[in-house]
Amino acid sequence: MTECADVTNRASVDFAGSIKALAVSGIDSITGLRKSRLIVLTSIQPMPPSPPKQPWIPLVAWLATLLFSLPAMALAQAVTEYDIPTKSSLPFSVTPGPDGALWFTEAHGNKIGRITTKGAITEYPIPTPDSKPVWIVAGPDGALWFTENGGNKIGRITTDGTITEFPLPEPGDDPWDIVSGPGGALWFTEHGGRLKIGSITTDGTLAEYRVPLAPWDLGAGPDGAIWYTEWTSNKVARMTTAGEVTNQFTVPTPSSAPNVIITGPDQLLWFTEYSGDKIASMTTAGAITEYPVPTPSSQPGNITVGPDGALWFTEHAGNRIGRITLTGAITEYLVPTPASAPMVVEPGPDGALWFTEYYGNKIGRIATP
């Protein structure tokens, strides 16, 4: 892990609320959070006891212990990691592109990266210096769209690497999450403190909508509306495409810090609770069911629908990739690089899940069970 003193030191707690996790001291100047609050030792797996010098019955019991421990020991082996050429690039988000590759942002590297399913990486510099690209998503126009949290712009990159930037109307709007939403537009949250959600059409036409409480992340709901999380207010809200906020629902766990929200294959809304250490499902009427993550203080971040019909999520501090079925059964997979801070996970065109390692400076791949 590397100190990023050359990146503007901001007091905002952006970047997924983000990482309160590191085994070194100091302040991460992008996230604004102290690095000394977590020492991750999750790469050390317990071994079963030695076989007993006893008759065959105790030996069978020992073998059973060994077999039951093997899945946990093998979890890290399911992961392949690819080093990013730019050192200390702080890869944040990843998304499948229309060209059969994965595209990702480099928050400190100030680049957009492309990785093939064979692991070949190409990087494209962003014209605006120190733009801090964070979230990226495939748009309906065959290009990739991304937010520049530091550059205060929405960016667009074609699959041949051509970048176009669209400045936001007010300085310091700090765009954050971005999704492809209803009406063929891209929708994004703003963390600049002015309580706004924005949209941009593929021709660059911008619109902004005032909301009652500060938005964090957002997703397209099963009802054709925009749903977004209110991190500091501990709520999940619904907004129409006309900008009307119709509902705000309080998360049962106090101070849970609701984070990323998506629509699941069951047509329920699913979201992570960063501080609540839970995964939650929710009906459009506001009924919330919560599922605790087995690893304590794991800080669940991004969540996505996997090719296997389950939900997959990252554990920033837990250094794991999690999988949860629609009935709430959770399995966790250890990331080989210690304290890598897995940030965003998304399905790839090869039937696997791909994820960013924010401090590991790698792109990871994990096969489905």
Written account of the structure:
- The protein contains 1 helix and 28 strands.
- The protein has one helix at residues 56-74, and strands spanning 79-83, 91-96, 102-106, 111-115, 121-125, 133-138, 144-148, 153-157, 163-167, 175-180, 186-190, 196-200, 206-210, 218-220, 226-230, 235-239, 245-250, 258-263, 269-273, 278-282, 288-292, 300-305, 311-315, 320-324, 330-334, 342-347, 353-357, 362-366.
- Strand 10 (175-180) and strand 11 form a beta hairpin.
- A 4-stranded antiparallel beta sheet has the order 1-28-27-26, with no helix packed on it. Strands 2-3-4-5 form a 4-stranded antiparallel beta sheet, with no helix packed on it. It has a 4-stranded antiparallel beta sheet with strand order 6-7-8-9, with no helix packed on it.
- With 369 residues, it is mostly beta strands.
- The relative contact order is 0.13.
- The protein has a single domain, classed as YVTN repeat-like/Quinoprotein amine dehydrogenase (Methylamine Dehydrogenase, Chain H), CATH 2.130.10.
- Helix content is 5%, strand content 39%.
Sequence-ordered SSE layout with sheet pairings:
Elements: H1 56-74, E1 79-83, E2 91-96, E3 102-106, E4 111-115, E5 121-125, E6 133-138, E7 144-148, E8 153-157, E9 163-167, E10 175-180, E11 186-190, E12 196-200, E13 206-210, E14 218-220, E15 226-230, E16 235-239, E17 245-250, E18 258-263, E19 269-273, E20 278-282, E21 288-292, E22 300-305, E23 311-315, E24 320-324, E25 330-334, E26 342-347, E27 353-357, E28 362-366
Antiparallel strand pairs: 1-28, 2-3, 3-4, 4-5, 6-7, 7-8, 8-9, 10-11, 11-12, 12-13, 14-15, 15-16, 16-17, 18-19, 19-20, 20-21, 22-23, 23-24, 24-25, 26-27, 27-28
